[in-house]
Amino acid sequence: MEQVFSTTGRRVSGTQFDSYHSLTVKQLSAKQQMVMDCFDTGAKLTREEISRRTNLKLSSVCGRARELLDAKRLAVVGSVRDIATGKRQELLGVPA
């Protein structure tokens, strides 16, 4: 069995890698689709805003957002400063 390393450095089989990268929009997981549904209006959202809109845990949103960014279904379109922490947060949106 051919071993391939994913973009996160995890070892996966060639068939797993090919299968994952052949997903179409219709084949998104339920949580990925929930995240994508937040962008129906062309909104630009932080991961925390997506978490609030979907009622998914922030860690789950971060994982799904990373998958969608890697698949080029989402893109980083800017950033905003968090009022509470003062740190910058990425704004995600649908690529143009």
Automatic annotation (TrEMBL):
It comes from the Bacteria. Gene3D superfamilies: Winged helix-like DNA-binding domain superfamily/Winged helix DNA-binding domain (1.10.10.10). InterPro entries: WH-like_DNA-bd_sf (IPR036388). This is Winged helix-turn-helix DNA-binding protein. It comes from Cupriavidus phytorum.
